[in-house]
Design a protein that fits this description.
about 290 residues, alpha+beta, Arc Repressor Mutant, subunit A, 5-stranded antiparallel sheet, 3-stranded antiparallel sheet, 13 helices, about 50% helix
Length: about 290
């Protein structure tokens, strides 16, 4: 690929593999574009899953954090500049053309979302949604990334559905008064709590301990956490622990008992119960044993 000194305009042929309408990767897979202004003929939606960065777009710069979602219009020069901190900067980068989504109609509200994303209405270069929907959006991006990497039969149809789900959830969150009513301090407190859980999920965590840490009452933290993230504190803890368990089952040969302990579950029985209820299979079957 030829990159000139001026911000390049990337086409589908430059980035997409095989099909010309869709692509997803981790920012660590394409580090060349870090710190390099570029634009493209397609929409890009980035979801920060680790670290921090400065995002420059259309001549404006602002800081982005883990959990943030940024939808970038086509044709607008932009780049992410990682900021050195305790964890590396990693983001999902989801890219697609309008044709990818226009194979069926989803109604007026979805048409409006497409008009905004593809620049037919409004005057904003991007949409920045702070990390309040981290778990919801993280799950969608994980499903898209997994489908694209495994490429089982029908994967593009599933990805198309997941991208549709992503866009609908994005615009619902923007219109959600329950999220907007919380102050920056409360949102930062919830973000701090999710980050603390992500780092310490192996420990015994209670709502009372988490609320004491940020000087909130446990009832208020519980309510704010549920309304901002879409799930309870306990459900979020279980999600993080299950994610680690699935990773260990897929990437290591550790025993199920070892994985239960390393994932933060108190005992093997509770691990099996939660895993089967959530994943609809047992840990051994998930591993393919």
């Amino acid at each position: 690929m030829k990159i000139s000194s001026a911000p390049p305009m990337l086409s589908s042929d430059d980035i997409f593999e095989g099909n010309k309408d869709f692509f997803i990767h981790l920012s660590t897979d394409y580090k060349y574009f870090e710190n390099k202004l570029h634009s493209h003929e397609f929409v890009e939606i980035s979801h920060i899953i680790s670290g921090e960065a400065e995002h420059e777009i259309g001549g404006i710069k602002y800081k982005v954090h883990r959990g943030d979602l940024i939808a970038i219009r086509r044709g607008v020069p932009h780049t992410f500049r990682p900021i050195e901190c305790d964890e590396p900067f990693v983001a999902y980068d989801l890219m697609f053309t309008e044709n990818f989504l226009l194979q069926r109609s989803f109604g007026d509200s979805f048409d409006y979302a497409l008009d905004v994303l593809f620049g037919r209405t409004g005057n904003h270069n991007d949409i920045h949604l702070a990390g309040g929907g981290y778990q919801i959006f993280g799950e969608i991006f994980h499903r898209i990334y997994t489908e694209f990497r495994t490429r089982h039969s029908g994967y593009l149809d599933l990805i198309r559905a997941y991208v549709t789900e992503l866009i609908i959830n994005l615009f619902r969150r923007l219109e959600d008064d329950s999220y907007a009513k919380f102050s920056s301090r409360i949102k930062d407190a919830v973000r701090s709590t999710t980050a603390f859980i992500d780092e310490n999920f192996k420990d015994h965590l209670t709502l009372e301990d988490l609320s004491t840490r940020i000087f909130f009452s446990k009832d208020y933290l519980g309510k704010a956490f549920r309304e901002i993230t879409g799930m309870t504190v306990i459900a979020y803890i279980q999600k993080v622990r299950l994610s680690e368990a699935c990773r260990l089952l897929s990437e290591t040969d550790k025993t199920v008992s070892e994985i239960a302990e390393l994932s933060g579950f108190g005992d093997l029985k509770s691990f099996y119960t939660v895993f089967k209820r959530t994943m609809n299979t047992t840990p051994r079957k998930y591993r393919g044993e």
